[in-house]
Amino acid sequence: MASLKDVQNQIVSIKKTKQITKAMNMVASAKLRGAQSRIDRFRPYADKFYEMLGDLAAGADSSVHPLLEVHEEIKTVGIMLVTSDRGLCGSFNANMINAALKLAAEKKAEGKTVKFYCVGKRGRDTIKKTEFEIIEAYADEMGSFDFNLAITVGNTVIDAYLAEELDEVFLVFGKFVSVASQPPTTLQILPMSSDAVGEEAEGGASSEYIYEPSVEGLLAELLPRFVKVQVYRGLLDTSTSEHAARMAAMDNATRACDDMTETLTLLYNKTRQAAITADLMDIVGGAEALKG
User: Fold this and answer.
1) According to DSSP H, which parts of 147-210 are helical?
2) If one looks up domain 4-25+249-291 in CATH, what number appears?
3) Which residues pair with 169 in a beta bridge?
4) 8: closest CA among 276, 274, 265?
5) What is the pTM of this model?
6) What is the fold, at CATH topology level, of the domain defined by 28-245?
7) I want to staple 160 with a disulfide (CB 3.0 to 4.6 A). Which of 24, 165, 172, 215 is the partner?
8) In what order do the strands lie in the sheet with 133-138?
């Protein structure tokens, strides 16, 4: 049986751990509110953008813009994996990585070459240990990113697609549904299709616009931006999901500390009672010996 001092030290250690997990829970909660606010501000712009682009692309032929064209032979697939830079958020990062690796395995089984573009240290560090090649990695960006990161990443994959270094590009990220749900989500962002663009628009495409100077000119400007908007959406969702997952993980850890403290306190009391009983037995035994 553990000594009283050992049990007491364990209780003190767990209480200190609880203070840390509780503080991290509060920090994650505050960051989650900020991240949700960013999504709320971005959503009206994204919805209107999708609506207008869906209307533009609805009747467009794939030859209008190279980002709409499907390459004759699909040989190389790019997977853009978005994870967090830090851990302590439960299985969140593992879920994103597993979804990306599953997709990579499927494409490899079809005889295609798979190349990764990683945003976030957790994804990068894991993919580095696999057989797949990392073309670009963006670390220490998820803590304080803006649309410029989406522009940089988006331009990288657009240039590779136009140069036919990539024939398909998929985005894997954590979609923020609620505080309790952040499922891994996979979107094909290149080549784009008018159907996919239209699906992003809530309520479908609208026909209330008159476009000047031409539909083709607007598509040339808006289609590359659509890729960057999709990337930014993935960054925002993943960042928000990370904070939600960390808040839940730290809440669970705090509850576990309470349970362990309760168990160890019970053990401490039992150990202390056993020690007192043993001392009393020694005293009684000594008294009986003196009487004899």
Assistant:
1) 147-162, 194-200
2) 1.10.287.80
3) 78, 190
4) 265
5) 0.86
6) Pyruvate Kinase; Chain: A, domain 1 (3.40.1380)
7) 165
8) 133-138, 113-119, 76-82, 168-174, 184-190
